[in-house]
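To the wet lab folks,

You asked to see what we're planning to order before we commit. Fair enough. Below is the target structure as tokens, and below that is the sequence we designed to fit it. If anything looks off to you, flag it before the synthesis order goes out.
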């Protein structure tokens, strides 16, 4: 059978994605489940992260968010039986590509898929749902009555954050990166308290947030990247907020959850955070599968996400599924434009 793999290039060269023949061992591990894959989500590969955690291979498996049907179970598997529909995220060190027809995965990385939830929908949105859940529940400890600012709310991740926060009675402010995205966010139901334009060269984020919160600032900020310097910024980062703006909109005791890996805080930034008794958390959803320390909590989160999708609480924007023969091109596009997603139907 065939799977999609990444051949890591040099530091400057773009990685190459190739379809490779692969096979599974004849005997399943004690706690392993053999799954026939129905759909697989494609997200950008973080090659630096893989190197940091010591995963170095000539061919790196691609496609980790999978939905499928159990074919066979190992002798000590207790959660699943053949014909069960399941969904999960392959761990970082998995030797399997999620685009193989059949994969072997430990039962502790899977949860049952609700019957009325489509495989394509859940494979496309599971990772963003996990990121949103981790940001709002695990890091920010959101509670009803609080106010959250979700930056770039029309992104897949931003939309999940908005819907999850609204469900829990949190007041939501968000930013839009284009006129089309602005209209989309204005029409969301349940509605957000305010959509702030950032695509027209305006830098009115701080006064508008303070106006909406009575001068108090927000309890939580969820970003999708940060501008570290005012000038010499690449074109794609010009719509991102400056770190000082984010700290300024935080209220007393606020939480800033950031996706910016190389965030640099200068002494004045730290002083302002100290004055507000505010905190900064780094969002890295890979920790759930990189460590087994909180495996039970992770499975509870996955189960809650798929149940909320099935109930219509989380409503991801539909992704058009691509066939396997277009997976290489789709993954190249995803890797080049870090915020795009794709889903492959097998």
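Sequence we intend to order:
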């Amino acid at each position: 059978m065939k799977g999609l793999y990444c051949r890591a290039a040099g530091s400057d060269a773009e990685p190459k994605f190739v379809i490779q023949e692969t096979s599974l061992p004849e005997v399943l591990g004690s706690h392993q489940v053999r799954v026939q894959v129905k759909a697989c989500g494609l997200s950008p590969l973080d090659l630096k992260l893989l190197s940091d955690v010591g995963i170095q291979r000539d061919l790196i498996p691609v496609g980790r968010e999978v939905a499928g049907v159990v074919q066979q179970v190992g002798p000590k598997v207790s959660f699943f039986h053949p014909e069960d529909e399941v969904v999960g995220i392959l761990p970082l060190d998995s030797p399997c590509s999620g685009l193989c027809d059949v994969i072997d995965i430990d039962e502790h990385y899977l949860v049952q898929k609700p019957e009325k939830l489509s495989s394509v929908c859940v494979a496309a949105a599971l990772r963003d749902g996990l990121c949103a859940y981790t940001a709002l529940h695990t890091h920010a400890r959101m509670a009803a009555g609080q106010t959250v600012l979700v930056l770039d709310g029309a992104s897949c991740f931003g939309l999940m954050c908005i819907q999850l926060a609204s469900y829990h009675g949190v007041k939501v402010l968000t930013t839009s990166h284009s006129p089309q995205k602005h209209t989309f966010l204005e029409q969301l139901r349940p509605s957000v308290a305010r959509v702030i334009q950032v695509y027209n060269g305006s830098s009115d984020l701080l006064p508008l947030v303070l106006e909406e919160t009575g001068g108090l600032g927000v309890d939580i900020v969820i970003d999708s990247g940060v501008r570290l310097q005012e000038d010499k910024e690449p074109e794609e980062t010009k719509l991102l907020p400056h770190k000082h703006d984010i700290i300024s909109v935080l209220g007393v005791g606020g939480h800033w959850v950031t996706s910016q890996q190389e965030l640099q805080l200068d002494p004045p930034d730290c002083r302002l955070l100290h004055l507000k008794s505010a905190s900064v958390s780094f969002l890295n959803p890979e920790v759930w599968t990189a460590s087994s320390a909180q495996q039970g909590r992770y499975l509870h989160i996955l189960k809650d996400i798929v149940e909320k999708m099935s109930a219509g609480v989380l409503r991801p924007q539909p992704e058009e599924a691509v066939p396997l023969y277009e997976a290489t091109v789709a993954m190249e596009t995803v890797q080049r434009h870090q915020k795009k997603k794709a889903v492959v139907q097998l």
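Structural context that might help your review: The radius of gyration is 21 Å. The mean pLDDT is 88.

Thanks,
Computational group
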